[in-house]
């Protein structure tokens, strides 16, 4: 597989067989993995429903996460209570695991929400600008150092940051500046790259002559490639990286080697630039199927359990579909009110200008 290193960390093969790794080990139980299967199943349902809503004209656009569930769920379940997430725009599984109100994600892509979300402090707003969140994450991580939340003897007193981005974003200047600053100041940040092989229509091999994780060495911090479709390995590697950050050992780059089974967004047609054979090959690495196979072999789940999970997933789908009728379009006054904590003179002038402009249409009617 192009870009796959012989150093890639894997603990569960595509066939669902457990393997060992000299440096990383899964520290959970089979019961924990039953929970991870539920996380991934509901994440996929949420993503599929949102994609269908866009196709029916209910959303303006949607960035699918199909195939990337293990990368997101495994990394999210590695987080400690004081850790903070800086997502891009595709981290639906991370949001689900952190109990972010998913209706707000639907509202964002429906255009009824400008991003003034009432969500957990530890999960920052979706970032549409490619890679910009890595700068925010690095600055926030440096702030944790100034606040004395790094390197304390009691692990509960420490915190770290995780910044999600894709393989395409790794070629952006903002991301590389973030690597430089985080290395220079030993910032407690984990850069979690979901290498889904395609930056819209550009294959990863056009961006780098070496596996992406090897770039980290040039910036002076560790890089690890992990099987991004193996939820056990992803959680193990992310736990290690976050512990390093909290202990004051600095940044880490994780390359989760995965695949975008769907389109970049619903405005994109992937059949124009990639072969069916490639998609079919990656379908054999499906993260949900491999975990299901393993848990069946262990006797941790059976047909009855999977039937209950499917019923829960269907109910969740019905709930998601109901959200679009509950969403209210924000007025311009509300949008002006939420730009700054205290409005500026310039912004109030813009508000008045818009009100006059809008009143002109009413007079014409």
Q: Tell me the strand percentage band.
A: 5-15%
Order of helix and strand elements from N to C terminus: HHEHHHEHEEEHEHEHHHHH
Overall helicity: 40-55%
Largest sheet: 5 strands, parallel
Structural class: alpha/beta
Gap between N and C termini: 63 Å
**What is the average of the pLDDT values?**
94
Label the overall shape.
globular
Number of strands: 7
Rg measurement, Å: 21 Å
Which spans have pLDDT < 50 for at least 5 consecutive residues?
none
Strand order of the largest sheet: 1-2-3-7-6
Q: Give me the number of helical elements.
A: 13
Question: Could you explain the architecture of this structure?
Answer:
There is one protein chain. By secondary structure, the protein is α/β, with parallel strands linked by helices. The protein is built from 13 helices and 7 strands. The chain is 45% helix and 8% strand. The strands form 2 sheets. A 5-stranded parallel sheet has the order 1-2-3-7-6, with helices on both faces. Strands 4-5 form a two-stranded antiparallel ribbon. Strand 6, helix 8 and strand 7 form a beta-alpha-beta unit. The longest helix has 26 residues, at 30-55. The model has no long low-confidence stretch (mean pLDDT 94).
């Amino acid at each position: 597989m192009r870009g796959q290193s012989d150093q890639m960390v894997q603990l569960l093969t595509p066939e669902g067989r457990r393997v060992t790794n000299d440096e990383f080990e899964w520290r959970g139980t089979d019961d924990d993995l039953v929970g991870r299967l539920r996380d991934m199943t509901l994440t996929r349902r949420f993503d599929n429903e949102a994609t269908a809503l866009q196709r029916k004209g209910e959303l303006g656009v949607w960035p699918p996460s199909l195939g990337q569930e293990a990368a997101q769920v495994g990394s999210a379940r590695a987080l400690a209570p004081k850790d903070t997430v800086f997502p891009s725009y595709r981290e639906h599984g991370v949001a689900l695991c952190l109990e972010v109100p998913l209706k707000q994600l639907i509202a964002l892509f429906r255009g009824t929400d400008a991003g003034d979300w009432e969500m957990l402090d530890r999960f920052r707003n979706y970032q549409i600008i490619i890679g910009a969140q890595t700068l925010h994450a690095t600055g926030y991580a440096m702030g944790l150092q100034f606040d004395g939340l790094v390197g304390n003897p009691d692990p509960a007193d420490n915190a770290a940051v995780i910044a999600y981005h894709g393989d395409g974003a790794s070629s952006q200047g903002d991301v590389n500046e973030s690597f430089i600053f985080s290395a220079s100041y030993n910032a407690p940040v984990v850069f979690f790259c979901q290498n889904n092989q395609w930056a819209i229509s550009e294959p990863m091999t056009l961006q780098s002559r070496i596996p992406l994780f090897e770039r980290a060495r040039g910036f002076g911090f560790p890089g690890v490639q992990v099987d991004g479709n193996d939820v056990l390995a992803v959680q193990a590697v992310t736990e290690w990286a976050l512990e390093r950050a909290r202990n004051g050992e600095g940044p880490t780059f994780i390359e989760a080697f995965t695949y975008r089974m769907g389109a970049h967004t619903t405005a994109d047609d992937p059949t124009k630039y990639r072969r069916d054979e490639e998609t079919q090959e990656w379908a054999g690495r499906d993260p949900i199927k491999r975990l299901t196979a393993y848990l069946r072999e262990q006797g941790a789940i059976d047909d009855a359990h999977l039937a209950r999970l499917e019923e829960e997933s269907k109910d969740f789908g019905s709930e998601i579909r109901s959200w679009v009728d509950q969403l209210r379009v924000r007025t311009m006054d509300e949008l002006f009110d939420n730009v700054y904590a205290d409005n500026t003179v310039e912004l109030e002038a813009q508000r008045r200008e818009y009100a006059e402009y809008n009143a002109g249409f009413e007079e014409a009617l």
